[in-house]
């Protein structure tokens, strides 16, 4: 994640490395952000905007970018990312945490 730790008004980039077990033509990515254990934001994106489709079986690299709000309460944040194919199969699951 850059910057680490994130700051108010900064563009936060999370780079995800993994391996796909099969080719995936399309799907959705759900990103949920929590603060102090409470969900504070959720975003659903097209998998093909997050990764280049079709996704071939093998190594994958994905980057999620979002701008932090101008006011960011201090504390522990969590990020959960789940990507599913158009048929509902899990493509990617990631959980991360950081402090602000």
Structure, described:
This protein has 100 residues and is mainly beta. It contains 1 helix and 6 strands. It has one helix at residues 47-50, and strands at residues 11-20, 27-35, 38-46, 58-67, 76-85, 90-99. The strands form 2 sheets. It has a 4-stranded antiparallel β-sheet. A two-stranded antiparallel ribbon has the order 1-4. Strand 5 (76-85) and strand 6 form a beta hairpin. It starts with 10 loop residues before the first strand and ends with a strand. The mean pLDDT is 90. Residues 2-98 form the MD-2-related lipid-recognition domain. Keywords: Lipid transport, Signal, Transport. This is MD-2-related lipid-recognition domain-containing protein.
List the helices and strands and how they pair.
Elements: E1 11-20, E2 27-35, E3 38-46, H1 47-50, E4 58-67, E5 76-85, E6 90-99
Low-confidence stretches: none
Rg from alpha-carbon coordinates: 14 Å
Please tell me the overall pLDDT.
90
Amino- and carboxy-terminal Cα gap:
13 Å
- The share of residues in helices is under 10%
What class would the helix/strand composition place it in?
mainly beta
Shape: elongated
Count of runs of 4 or more consecutive helical residues: 1
Largest sheet: 4 strands, antiparallel
- Give me the side-by-side strand order of the main sheet: 3-2-5-6
Quantity of strands, as a count: 6
Order of helices and strands: EEEHEEE
| Percent strand | over 45%
In short:
InterPro entries: Ig_E-set, ML_dom, NPC2-like. This is MD-2-related lipid-recognition domain-containing protein. Helices cover 4% and strands 58% of the residues.
């Amino acid at each position: 994640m850059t910057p680490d730790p994130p700051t108010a008004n900064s563009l936060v980039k999370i780079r995800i490395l993994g391996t796909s077990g099969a080719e995936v033509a399309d799907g959705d990515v759900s990103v949920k952000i929590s603060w102090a254990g409470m969900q504070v934001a959720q975003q659903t994106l097209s998998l093909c905007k997050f990764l280049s489709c079709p996704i071939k079986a093998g190594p994958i690299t994905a980057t999620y970018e979002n701008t932090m709000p101008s006011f960011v309460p201090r504390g522990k944040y969590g990020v959960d990312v789940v990507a599913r194919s158009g048929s509902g199969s899990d493509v990617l699951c990631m959980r991360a945490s950081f402090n602000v």
